[in-house]
Amino acid sequence: MRQDVLALLPELCLLLGAVGGLLVGLWLPRERQWIVHALAAAALLAAIALALADATGASRTVFDGTYTLDPTLHTVRVVVPAATLLVLALSRGAVRGHVRETEYAVLLLLAALGAVLLAGASDLLVLAGAYLLASIALYPLAGFAKDAPGTEAALKLALFGAFLGITMLAGITALYGLGGGTAYATLRGGLTEVPPSAVTAAAVAVLAGLLFKAGAVPGHFWVPDATEGAGVGVAAFLTTVPKIGGLAAIYRLSTEAVPAPAGLALVLAVLAAASMTLGNLAAFWQDNARRLLAYSTISQVGYLLIAPAAAGAELARPALLFYLAAYAVTNLGAFAVVAAHHRGENLDDYTGLFRRMPLLALTLVVCLLGLVGTPPTAVFVGKLTIFAAGLDSPMTWLVVLAVANTVASVFYYLRWIAPLFKEPTDEHTAGVPVGWAPATAYTAGALTLLLGVGGGLILEALSA
User: Domain segments of the chain: what residues?
Assistant: First the structure.
């Protein structure tokens, strides 16, 4: 048991950071609540360091095979705390001095912990617990500002989370009844004698909750309203961190628990096609910057779902893991620019930004072109690799559709890029950047380029 507990040191850092921050915050005066954010940042950095140290070990399971430590979990253990750290930094100016400054950091840590547990869960009961932890912390975060848009965002998020969570629990019950157990290894053997249609139906019900976390069709309806209604930092977190855990959990469930003959790959391919196409079509005419990024993230999930749909390909898992890291830093970079240019709600508000804040404008260009998949950004390497995995499987039609959607997405990203280089007018006044958002944007933009340049080495390490 001692060895099992020590194997979870990165997760324990996140948990202790949340509990310790909450307790410390009870005794601190309001003007010193920043100490809790410093403790949260320390816990995130410690989790990253411990995850990197543990990544050199062999893949194994702990707690009677209910939790798997492998390259998938090692990657998520690094990417999720790193993304949460960026969110903590970009939202620092907005929450400084807030009456619930402590709770903000604590909720971020708990939601991040839930996302990590989703990625490592190899038992249906652990998966359900991780889903609840990753979801419940998001509801108060969405309504953190306690204004009308935030309240609407929290309500929609909670309703969809509850409905799809119940559907997920029903699917877990069905899989348990069909497979004779809750451990993925048990299900893999027990479901082979079950009619494939029954297995697929039960697995799709389980996927309902995970698709909600990922923001994929049909669990995507909350994404645009929650992204627009919540604060910029919360919106950045909602569209990034839950997706990482959700997609890793989808990949593990589809490869380790459900037998290949069940036909789940085709279901995932159809959902991938629907997500990338709907997200792109809805983003075409968006004038609000956050809603555009919300629909963009739905389309990105469509590309990411190619990996579990093509799970038989050798490149599928490393492609998914690299793409998740690439998407995280690129998406957070775009949101950090929105946070820095805090008057930039609509695309027209960015007119002339290059004349006023050239470095910030160039960072936004890098992140938006990165989301398209333009070299030498990280998403380009991720997309190229994930498309290669799709071509190595019977999913060629899906890759062709993904390429067409990628080309089409250039249109709405250019609608945001073009105003940056126009001459500003009196109507387009710039707000003064607040807090650490500009530095966060520059950091994320630099990471996007660094991951793109070093993508080959990282993919080689992930494939080992």
Answer: 267-464
